[in-house]
Amino acid sequence: MTAFATDPLSIATGVDGAAGPPVRATSSIVICSLPRSGSWLLAQALDRTGVAGHAREYLRPELERRYAAEWGVAAPDVDGFTRGMLRGGTTANGVFALKVHWHDCMRYVASARGAGRLGSDADVLRAMLPAPRFVHIVRRDTLRQAVSWCRALDSDAWWQVGGSAPADAEERWDPDFEKIEVLQGLLAEGERGWRAFFGAGGIAPVEVVYEDLVADFAPTVRRVLDQLGVVCPHDDAGVPAPSLRRQADSMSERWVQDVLQLQRAAAIPVTRVETAPLASALRPGGLWVRREQPFPHVVAHDVLRLDVYSRMEAAYAQLLARPGAFTRSTTGYDVFSHTFDAATRGPLALFCSREWHDLVAAVCGMRGTGHVFAGLHHHGIGSPSGSPHNDLNPGFFARASRDGEVVLASSACSYFTGAAAQQGVLPVETVRGVAVIFFLHNGPWRPGDGGEVGLYRGAFDPVDHPPLTVPPIDNSMLLFECTPNSLHAFLSNRVRPRNSVILWVHRTRSEVVARWGDAAIVHWPASSRKVSLNTIS
What we know:
Elements: H1 8-12, E1 27-33, H2 39-49, H3 61-71, H4 78-88, E2 95-101, H5 102-114, H6 121-128, E3 132-138, H7 142-155, E4 160-161, H8 177-201, E5 206-209, H9 210-215, H10 217-228, E6 244-245, H11 250-266, H12 276-279, E7 287-291, E8 297-301, H13 306-321, E9 327-328, E10 336-339, H14 354-363, E11 371-379, E12 394-397, E13 407-408, E14 428-439, E15 453-455, E16 468-470, E17 477-481, E18 488-490, E19 498-508, H15 509-516, H16 526-529
Helix pairs in contact: 5-6, 7-8, 7-11
């Protein structure tokens, strides 16, 4: 038996996926999970029946390499790795089992596509695994899930077997609130990914809720097996009790209460400023949190309803694929841009609406003029980091805004200088008041991927070592008032493209001058003033 330190079942059960004579797999069970969802508890329960495969995290990157070496498979050989995986994870009745997190599943699917598999993500998985059936395990309390994940990352104690001591028996420490918030966002992203995968593939998975599994263990395991069509030789009384031990303790509960208190204090009552048309797009229960350091800003997770976000992402992807829709931006900033104008229609037009203008202005405590510059950004893989800047720049529009409308930047006058391109145009000078970055079409994000927005205390902070970062998690958003201190920068994306909607709500110039003085306005360099409207960054 080969027992990997990161595989609790090898120790808890004494069963390893590579043990025993090879058996041909005729069907598969895929446990679709996220970190700290109770998936190891479920995997152990199915493993111990002896008829539901040996579910392991075969596709976890660090374990994948070790399994490949164990099976003598070259790293790029996805077919050879799959054959080894099927040999190791199959019980005598021909049932193979796999436990996999969302981002690892998508990486495996991408590798299979590279080997020639075609179709949807579900089609590709069906081509790799024999007759797969899917089990989806979720946790109702995602805050406690994020707290558990954070503690495991901090302590490197991922599970406890039998009577082993609690992870915090000798040391107690305080929560990292920002990390927990990011982990909540990653859990929401992974859950959206699984739901989209099931929907696109026409899959109705067997649903398991962690809290129900813990409260009613044997009957829940029996129900899962019945719904999978796996004949189990045991009745409920014969389902072995779990040997994996619950890790949550008084320290976990203290963290949860601390986070809840902070979130209640920082939460923004979005429902008080939204209007009826926008209410149908915003996701109920989405978390909008105000932070004060290194400068005041708001991070929002699960901003839009899933159906609204899906349509918006599809519209973005369609534009990105259209030749000429994105053009190179200003010198010194490695980005391709697409600018919204009065002709913008479809899902993305939400960002051009007066309702959206009023929402983000109110969240930042600012009164907008009804002038908006908005568009899309696309950073190719490896785009270099930018430099800390504050966005307190002027913007010129062709006319004043009337009550209840939005005036977008247009070719009628230069956004940078106010030079009119048509007779009778009387440009209005404004200054950027609120900056918004909404992340979409980025795919699963993991720490280390890059593409974050760095937030800084001063202009001379090293760009690659910001005090705080905001990751590009799909359907999340960063927004802040543009002030002399709102210093931020794009951080290089090392793994995948970075995509976003960018938007500025404007305020009057006189307001900025009265508050910070005329010298605080950062005027555009000469090179930027020559750039056409469609390449503004």
